[in-house]
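Hello,

Following up on my earlier ticket. Below are the two sequence lines again, exactly as submitted.
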Amino acid sequence: MKKYNAAIILGVTCLILVLAICIQIRTIEEASNVVGSSLNDNSEMKDKVLEAQEDYKQIYSQLEKSNKKLEKIRQLATSNSQEDELLKLELEDNDKVQGLTDVKGKGVIINLDDNREVDETEVLNISSYLVHEEDLLQIINELFNAGADAISINNQRVVSTTAILCDGNIIRVNGEIISVPITIKAIGYPESLYYALMRPQGYLDVMQKDGVIVKVEKSDDITISKYEGVYNYDYIIGGDK
Amino acid sequence: MVILAIIIGCIVGALVGINLPTISYTYSGYLAIGIIAAIDSVFGGITASINGKFDLRVFVSGFFGNAILAMLLTLLGEKLNVDIYLAAIVVFVWRMFTNLAIIRRHYIDKLINKMENKKNENKKESVG
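Thanks for your patience. The regenerated structure is below:
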């Protein structure tokens, strides 16, 4: 009986030890995936980055909770009469247009990538083989002009306050860093979106001829995630109806 | 029986550990120091059992007590802005190496004894 007890206790301690080691290894792996290998040497900086990210995640989950609460309050407020029902529909429409909800529909998916196979010494201008922020701006313009309802770049929703900036070897959209390969999703009438960009001398056609790797496909089922930021305004006065 | 329990414990621990959610990075430092303390206790336990002094109560209380104490010291160090966990790591790893040396010597002695016994037997046979 005593030996039996000893076996069970030793087994449980081993279980706890191995469990802790597994969790620790996975936590560290996850953390190094987030930060990237270049920061691994500088552990203080890495800690700062990870802590900041954790704070961000917490605040973001709070925001999500508040949004859900707001949604519930709206539902309660609008469940009484038919007029309120109409208001609710209008609110939902506004949210869709402003990019505050995930949306689905048909449209096109554009994949862009730098051409890495060219030899730098053999071409006139290596820059024309890369994807730049101007390219994204032009493509977004063409897509909206062709009647796109919603657009996202690498899952960053393009909204009325979106800025697309060059930031060295990366691009910033909505303040978030994105880099190649770039996936642009656009909801709209697929044919017109496609030919707006791929017609002869269309923007993507030119890019493709310049040497950038371009792939465009029409799709019937595209999901575009919502804008993850918050609309703020400090200087607008008036505008109330 | 004991070895079987340990193996089962390790396998179950690994399986559960792979599927559990990870902890927040802020607390991973505490878990790490706890793991080091626990491993130190395991080596201490093996050494004690070699010396024939193994006591389960001492082992279990050391396993959890050391881990918790190390975590608390790390927390205190964080509050006081002193890296106390470095001292804990030095002590634990030092003890680990000491215990490992004892274990190694024990088994090497055993091996040498065995080989010498075999030689003696062979000699006896050749003489006989």
